[in-house]
């Protein structure tokens, strides 16, 4: 079967960057199937890139190679990385983009050092084309993981990807804003399972005390909380935009007060 490689970046679609990266892959792996997850990650936004990878890349069959480039530190001392986790290979910069992959047991990470994994040139500003794309192509066509380079035991992780405990409260934040204006938090479904009476969810100047199952359960125009398709607590407005209603966006604080 032809190797499967996905591509994710903050390059946008108006420049040559995506096309050049795809070409660098196909030059070395012409039979590869390329799937673009998104190239509209906000520029240099690692949390947004990690979100897309966590909830889109993991829908692919095991064995897929996920090439991801959101790389504000390109050309610096940050490490180029290959991660094996969850049945996939993840190729990109060691800057927190793959934080979620390190939550799985048995992950392995390697710094890309082998000269065969680099393209014919290595610019200081376009490692997506010159390093990560060739590495993904080689790995997808059988390059041994054990020869990538030295193991990495301390990969960079995004602290903001997980909520924190403050006594009986769980403090999180909005980590995704979709085109409908829904605000997805980093509070997982497990934290809200079996909610009974006495809890409060505070976001901005609003306090919510009910968890809905669907958007339509609430009255039209009503602000509501529910567990969304990503398995995370979400704020929405039935028929409207929670982002506009609350005048909030990504990284806005959310506080869940649980009964004592």
Sum up the structure in keywords.
nine-stranded mixed beta sheet, alpha+beta, Elongation Factor Tu (Ef-tu), domain 3, six-stranded mixed beta sheet, 29% strand, 260 residues, Rossmann fold
Q: In terms of quaternary structure, what is this?
A: single chain
Number of helices: 5
| Biggest sheet details | 9 strands, mixed
Q: Overall 3D geometry? A: elongated
The count of strands amounts to: 15
Give the overall pLDDT as a whole number: 93
The CATH architecture of the largest domain can be named as 3-Layer(aba) Sandwich
Structural Rg: 20 Å
- Which spans of ≥5 residues are poorly predicted at pLDDT below 50? none
CATH superfamily of the largest domain: S-adenosyl-l-methionine hydroxide adenosyltransferase, N-terminal
CATH topology of the largest domain: Rossmann fold
Our count of domains comes out at 2
Order of helical and strand elements: EHEHEEEEHEEEHEEEEEHE
Q: Gap between N and C termini, in Å?
A: 55 Å
Structural class: alpha+beta
What is the structure about, briefly put?
By secondary structure, the chain is of the alpha+beta class. It has five helices and 15 strands. Strands 7, 8, 9, 10, 11, 12, 13, 14 and 15 form a nine-stranded mixed beta sheet that branches. It has a six-stranded mixed beta sheet with strand order 2-1-3-5-4-6.
């Amino acid at each position: 079967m032809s190797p499967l490689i996905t591509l994710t970046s903050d390059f946008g679609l108006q420049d040559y960057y995506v096309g050049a990266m795809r070409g660098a892959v196909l030059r070395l792996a012409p039979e590869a199937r390329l799937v673009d997850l998104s190239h509209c990650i906000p520029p240099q936004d690692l949390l947004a890139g990690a979100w897309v990878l966590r909830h889109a890349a993991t829908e692919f069959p095991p064995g897929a190679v996920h090439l991801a480039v959101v790389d504000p530190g390109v050309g610096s001392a940050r490490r180029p990385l290959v991660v094996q986790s969850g049945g996939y290979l993840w190729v990109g910069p060691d800057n927190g983009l793959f934080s979620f992959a390190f939550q799985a047991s048995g992950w392995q990470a390697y710094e890309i050092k082998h000269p065969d994994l680099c393209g014919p040139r290595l610019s200081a500003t376009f490692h997506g084309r010159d390093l990560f794309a060739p590495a993904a192509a080689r790995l997808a066509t059988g390059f041994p993981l054990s020869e990538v380079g030295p193991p990495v035991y301390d990969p960079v992780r995004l602290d903001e990807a997980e909520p924190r405990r403050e006594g009986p409260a769980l403090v999180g934040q909005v980590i995704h804003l979709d085109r409908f204006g829904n605000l997805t938090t980093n509070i997982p479904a497990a934290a809200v399972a079996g909610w009974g009476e006495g809890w409060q969810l505070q976001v901005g100047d609003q306090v919510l005390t009910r968890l809905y199952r669907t958007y339509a359960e609430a009255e039209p125009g009503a602000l509501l909380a529910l567990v969304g398709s990503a398995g995370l607590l979400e704020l929405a407005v039935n028929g409207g935009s929670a982002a506009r209603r609350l005048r909030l966006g990504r990284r806005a604080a959310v506080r869940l007060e649980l009964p004592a």
